Amino acid sequence: MNEWVPIAKEYDPLKAGSIDGTDEEPHDRAVWRAMSARYVPNKDVSGDPHLTLFVARLNLQTTEEKLKEVFSRYGDIRKIRLVRDLVTGFSKGYAFIEYKEERALLKAHRDANKLIIDQREIFVDFELERTLKGWIPRRLGGGFGGKKESGQLRFGGRDRPFRKPINLPAMKNDFYNEGKRERAWSRGGSRDWKTGERDYERSRESRRSERERTSGGYGKSERELEHRAREDRGRAAEGRERERKDRNREAKDGKG
């Protein structure tokens, strides 16, 4: 844990595929490819890698002139290389900008990240291909960042740094020694589960009896309440029947 850093100082494809840099087994095929790859940086690339910025997520319509207009505010630019497709000539959405002074490079690295250029939020980092030991590009399964949709996220870079590993304290073995757990329970006065179940049943019965002893209809048992309701309905029916007979008798006496 003392050696943990959010940004990788040396590129390791296995660690880059781990959210906290602690994986011991590759979790996707691209990591396998990156681990077996032997990448040699392009020797035809000129310029000082320690004075070069990597600019990505550009709008495909952004030109070298637009990049010079934006990044020249941080210092004097020596060269801009917008990477284009060899066949079509269209922009691939990323570029390399070389400054004349390190001070300008550091200022652009600090302030230009997440700028909006041509309605696109850009990403800015140092060039890693020639400066980070063990670097493997994205096309070979390496790199940093990546999209969630691809299922091949890479960690340890500026865009998606490592998360700090969870360091749980080791449990003391004495806690699990024989007899200690029983003594801890006995201090609380706890008993076995059968005793607890019997106590629960007794308390439930006593609460039920208390409800049934309450005055009036409130708190009576459901059976008693139902019996009383049935008796009330019977008495009401008998009363209606007597009234009907009395009316019939009076009607007959009136006719006679």
Notes on the structure:
It comes from Pantherophis guttatus (Corn snake). Residues 147-170, 186-256 are annotated as: Disordered. InterPro entries: Nucleotide-bd_a/b_plait_sf (IPR012677), RBD_domain_sf (IPR035979), RRM_dom (IPR000504), snRNP35_RRM (IPR034146), U1_U11-U12_snRNP_70-35kDa (IPR051183). Keywords: Nucleus, Ribonucleoprotein, RNA-binding. One of its GO terms (cellular component) is U12-type spliceosomal complex. The chain is α+β, with helices and mostly antiparallel strands and 256 residues long. Among the domains are: 1-39 and 134-165, no CATH class; 47-133, Alpha-Beta Plaits (2-Layer Sandwich). Helix content is 36%, strand content 12%. It has 7 helices and 6 strands. The chain has helices at 13-16, 29-36, 64-71, 102-111, 180-187, 193-213, 222-255, and strands spanning 52-56, 77-84, 91-99, 116-117, 120-121, 123-126. The protein has a 4-stranded antiparallel β-sheet. It has a two-stranded antiparallel sheet with strand order 4-5. The longest helix has 34 residues, at 222-255. The radius of gyration is 41 Å and the shape is elongated. The protein starts with 12 loop residues before the first helix and ends with a helix.
